[in-house]
Design a protein that fits this description.
Elements lengths: L1 H15 L6 E3 L2 E4 L7 H18 L1 H29 L3 H10 L18 H19 L1
Antiparallel strand pairs: 1-2
């Protein structure tokens, strides 16, 4: 089980690094990085501390990491999936689609619902996988 935990933690860390740097493969933009002066970098630091505490001081570190992951998924839900499920205002939809224009997508952009791009779908799945690992460990 510990191997799965470490693998999912490493995958999430590497995947989320794309929010700090930019992941572009040829002409395909996966995600545009915001740099170290961003809220994404602060989240990366909190996650890194949580992972370190998880492995160094398991009883407390596990709950600390779980709290960070639950906060993170709540923010992601509010930023993305809430508008996918319940719909978005024209202003929100236009802003989101403009901000993530050109990123790789599994599902096409919608006129009425916010549809997360490939990067965010994978990010959210990895966060959930890490939550499950933190609970089961």
């Amino acid at each position: 089980m510990l191997i799965a935990v470490v693998v999912f933690q490493a995958l999430l860390w590497i995947w989320f690094l794309g929010c700090i740097t930019t992941y572009k493969f040829g002409k395909v933009l996966l995600v545009g990085g915001e740099g170290v002066k961003s809220i994404e970098f602060a989240m990366m630091c909190m996650y890194s501390v949580g992972v370190a505490l998880f492995h160094i001081y398991l009883p407390v570190g596990r709950w600390f990491l779980l709290a960070i992951l639950l906060l993170w998924i709540a923010v992601q839900f509010r930023s993305h999936w809430y508008y996918t499920i319940f719909g978005a205002s024209e202003r929100k939809l236009t802003g989101y689609n403009e901000w993530f224009k050109g990123t790789a997508r599994i599902f096409p952009v919608s006129e009425t619902r916010l549809i997360p791009d490939l990067y965010h779908i994978v990010l959210h799945l990895l966060i959930v996988a890490n939550i499950v690992c933190a609970i089961l460990r």
